[in-house]
Amino acid sequence: MTVDFLVRDLMEADRPWVLDVLVREWGAEFIVSRGRRVFPARLPGFIAESTSQKGLGLATYEIRDGQCELATLDALAKFSGIGTALLERVKGAALRAGCRRLWLITTNDNLDAIRFYQRRGFRIAAIYKDALMRSRELKPSIPATGQHGIPLRDEIEFEMAIE
Which one, of 108, 99, 109, lies nearest residue 159 by Cα? Predict the structure, then answer.
């Protein structure tokens, strides 16, 4: 699928749209990553859009302790290069901030993400067995069963060295 789009910095005026995407896609204004609530609508990020449609994709990230965590990556038009373009912008921001590691958390049911990140050079850094039990304490709306009917149990940490 070919989609013409550009990627730009997330601006303050975009925050209501980001919050709408998060609530629609993730069921709350926050996500849970490694046992803590993360509020992506408050984070820096990038938006992919076309001349006719705002919000074809969104990436948010957080820089802490000299590392960059990719908090969210959503491409609303799959297989069009949007996810890759957003990821590249996050990598650039991480490098400019002096980070040498880009990492993220996904869940064991997210097969599309697992494929996407590995094809772009990420490696599995850790598997946190049964981490979703703790996550449900912070966010009870996390279902027991995820995509493809897979029991939603574990967090998978992906990482890549960036230079």
Answer: 99
